[in-house]
What does this fold into?
Amino acid sequence: MEYALEMRKICKAFSGVRVLEDVTLKVKAGEVHALMGENGAGKSTLMKILMGIYKADRGEIYLGSNKVEVHNPKDAMGKGISMIHQELNTVMDMEVAENIFIGRELLKNDKLKLVDRARMREESARYLKKLEIDINPRALMRSLSIAQMQLVEIVKAISVNSKIIVMYEPTSAITDKEAVILFKQIEQLKKQGVAIIYISHKMNEIFRISDTITVLRDGQFIGSQPAGELDEDKLISMMVGRKITEIYPKDVAEIGDVILEVKDLSRGKRVHSANFQLKSGEVLGIAGLVGAGRSELAETIFGIVPKTAGDIFIRNKRVKIKNPSDAIGYRMALITEDRKRTGLNLAANVRENISLAALRNLANGGLIDRRKEKKAAEEYISKLKIKTSGADAMVSNLSGGNQQKVVLAKWLLNEPEIIIFDEPTRGIDVGAKRDIYRIINELAKQGKAIIVISSEMPEVMGISDRILVMCEGKITGELQRKEFTQERIMSYSSRKDGKKNE
Amino acid sequence: MNKTIGNNRFFNFKEFGILIAFFMLVAALMIISPNAFAQPRNLINILKQASINGILSCGMMFVIIAGGIDLSAGSTIALSGVAAAYFARLDRTPVLLPILVAVAVGGLVGAVNGAGVAYANLPPFIITLSTMTGVRGLALIVSGGSPIYGLAGSFEKLTNQFLLGVPALAVYFIIIALFSGFILVKTVFGRRVYAIGGSETTARVSGINVKKMKLAVYTICGCMAGIAGLLVASRTVQGSPTAGDGYEMDAIAAVVIGGISMSGGAGKWYGTIIGALLLAVISNGLDILGVSSNYQKIIKGVIIAVAVYLDLRGKAKQE
It folds into this structure.
């Protein structure tokens, strides 16, 4: 059997630390090959070797039956290997056709290097049509959605005759609806014999589109199997190397009094008269599709964006929350969805990030008590098991999971009573996810009132006592733990009438 | 006490590349020109030269760390200088009056900048470009287009004396530099300046009133420009509406050479001090070596580019 791509016995070490050890990857033409593993398993290093960004210490790469050496990304492209990055590389103020041909513009006149824009548009239109993508080649890149931009990247890959396309977390920034468009294109590519190496943390996606799954762990090849022969539990235990009987450990916490109550809360068109109660010790999940208004609800409660109507009660007292500072004053915390943009200060170190929201408590009359600050940071580093070289390490050097724990530490330092988690495990690996679930359990046991917004169905079902489902800005359903099923949540997520099911 | 030197202490000796460059330059000039450069009178002169830019740079540092820029600082020097001179013409008024007037005028310009950035959401470059032009015009109108002379001796004495054997200007500089460092490193306010420069949205979600912080930061910068304007007026014994032209660029240069990130959120307070001293030594050294001021401009430009390049390269290596 000949493979479109074979990476044989690849080894790579960085300053003496083994990152890849005899890793093998065999990808057939016309298949979607998922490459799985926790963060740090070696997936991205392997892909960077494939793209010629790193050079392997040992090992061989075969394209079909030809042994090749890839020197740099341009060289990779010439050999038919393209990569679509997590962060897109597009020029926003250029049109689609110009982006597709960037760096290899079609010319009218070779001497004068005059760009033949008309032909570039024609060619682009031809490729777009071939892939049945409905985008105008003359549209400005900026006017497209992120999913459409990704499709343009795919067209770019096809236009250079790529036989192998690496997709790195392609759905991390797009809505479910847009993901469907992407998956349809992937089907098209398969039909044309293109091999796709697909890297994603989203389990449901992996099982939906992949044909074969290869798992790496700690830089080693663990196994490669047809996707049909695996299920989520098997795959996770391959990835983390231990049997996980319970990925979502749910402890029973004592549920107490109502802490937070929201009455007819609205925010323009994004949130329509939301009503719910939250009790101490309770974990309230909020499920729904991306864009259903869940984050907006959290932002409104926390005072990031002002409400347009309705009331918020804390311990039966009506409160006015005009900004996050007020919310913090009422002992609330919000772990936001986008940790790099709204959770962390990447220019600062771990200690400064942890102390940011609690500086007043760590200071005497405006002067920071350095010793107290350091002690607090170190306490939370050990409590939450944050892997860092120290409190003064830059937070940008930490892995996603550990960065998330830093955000968590920042809020826990304020000893909040109401904690809202918005997509708390997005983009972090299985091990760190489990740590986060444990922390949520622990906090519930301490009597905190907790809201968890999550798009991952098993997650929200695994950790919640009760789930609210939102759709188009309205709360469309409420489920008690014993009533949880994916089907029920799905049906509420797509309801439009906004009636509560009692 | 732990022995490792932390990342954000008052001093951090891990980052002393710029300090080495400074001392090497001074040593080289001492050797090349022992009879001119190394003379105490010249060294004092350098300190004086560095002081006014240094004070302005301290204000600029606050704004840049907070993720902004202030192009109006040079014009503010003129307006506050003219205003101070206006109140310093009579011998009878206490010298405190022009001082307060200068600081207030500077602070007012800064507050306008801050309000524009924080509440009108104008890009810092744009609002301070507007005030740069507007304030210069105001200075010309207020002064009637020509310098205000006939200032009181007590006003002139502000800069024209020695305190404990050190030129008064340098003493003011040292005080303001230490004060700035203290605010930035030791206080909650200073930490928040870094936080809004590092990530404004994160700061806001963490309960920091970003708008108020920005207003404060630009006002501080304005006040320092006001002080610089006062000192320029005292030193030149006139309130000139054309004073301080281009000074904001020297201040930005000092901050940048000192390793403070133009994108905000990072940099050490003493970097600015060294940056200001370095610039003064360079221009003095080149003067003494007989390099024409036209060439000096080119050399300064190159130094700014190289300093930032080395800084970025150092950061890339860390990662």
